[in-house]
Amino acid sequence: MAQAGLGLHYGGIDGEPPGFYARRFVDYVLKHEIASHNTALSFIQEMLAYRYMRHLPDSPDKRLRPIEPTEAAVEQLAKWFYIHLMVLDSLDGSQRIATFVERPELVAVLQPTVASRIIASDRVRHPGETFDLFTWANSGGVIMDYLISRIGTMDPTAARMDIGPISFSEICERFLISRTHVKRLMSKASAMGSVGWVGSPGKSHFWLSRGFIQEYWDYQAEKFAIIGNVWEETVGAQPEPAPTEQQRLTSAAL
What we know:
The chain is mainly alpha-helical. Strand 4 (about 195) and strand 5 (about 205-210) form a beta hairpin. The protein has 13 helices and five strands. The protein has helices at about 1-10, 20-30, 35-50, 70-90, 95-100, 105-120, 120-125, 130-135, 140-150, 170-175, 180-190, 210-235, 245-254; strands at about 55, 65-70, 160, 195, 205-210.
């Protein structure tokens, strides 16, 4: 939803002029089956409450109050791009990061196309059943990232990968979720044969299936491919553009 909202703000990825309005955002989210109507509205309220978004004050029509990302939101978006470009540079030895740092307005230039392609990609959004289970659960995405991050040396031929002991209590504390929620999520993943305990539950090492890991790899590979392609199409094919007024907020955040 964050990518969708920013894409509307920076690039009008729904085919209309750039701009973020609550009704427009909800319509886009529903059309692309990103979330439910209520979830989309709750997302807006949370972003406003945590000051990642704000209403523009000069709208005469309260029903069409434009919303924009705050400096804090733009900073997080810039970090997201920085991390992904850094990984791409490490893979092929390019210097995307140097260009990105010199041209902070690229955040607003790249984001709409990246967002629209990610939203349109089944390989990013639905690489497999276990991935879908985690991403559709509350805080499931960050739990999945945490589990994958615990993989040490990877044996691509192994049916299961031992990630060592894990603590449900630690997961609950780190991601501010209930133990019941974590146990329910892990039980569903276990029933799918995607995760499990080597021995006694809670007292032994935890494992992830090769299929689950492959789903996560496919998701990451497609996402990085999209970002890399958009970079080449945008930065590699165009001269340095003058920043627009809308992009100056991005520059200030960096």
